[in-house]
Amino acid sequence: MSTVKGVAPPIEKYDGSSLRVLIVHARWNITVVDALIKGAIDTMTNEYSVKSENITIQSVSGSYELPFATQRLIAASRLQATPNAAELFSSTPAGEQTGPPPVNTQTFDVAICIGVLIKGSTMHFEYIADAVSNGIMRVGLDSGIPCVFGILTCLNDDQALERAGLGSSDKKHNHGIDWGHCAVELAVKNRGWMAGKI
Prior knowledge:
Blueprint: E1 21-26, H1 30-48, E2 55-60, H2 66-81, H3 85-88, E3 110-118, H4 124-143, E4 147-154, H5 157-163, H6 175-194
Parallel strand pairs: 1-2, 1-3, 3-4
Helix pairs in contact: 1-6, 2-4
């Protein structure tokens, strides 16, 4: 039986080759999280030419910590992108490099927050899901950097496995793939919006 559920592919083909992507993930339910990360990375690198060296991956203990970590990492990328006084007054001519190649220091174009919440026997699940959802949205709105909501909120282990493409049913699908598509589309569109292009 077919379903109407699911996202339609983007209308345009986006070039992600110049994007800098942040993935922040929780370590709870890591088997499922790892599959979701792989789905997102494979989609961005294989379908949109995002360079693997332009993908920064950071982990935190649980999903509750994702909004704070994402907010601070976006701020850190802005610090990296700002030349310091030593660089501004350096006597090394532009284009001349001394030492190892520099790390990509442009500001992150997009963040993907990945975590897996599985309901237990207490209200913990509901509080965490609500706080994380609101927190991730707030980070995106406050920073102006798109933050993709990569949080699975599942009632049991089987639901989590199915949504990471690890389940045994025909309905299994890795949602990390969707988050990879979403990240590139939002990052490219946001660059245009920031330049006044509609």
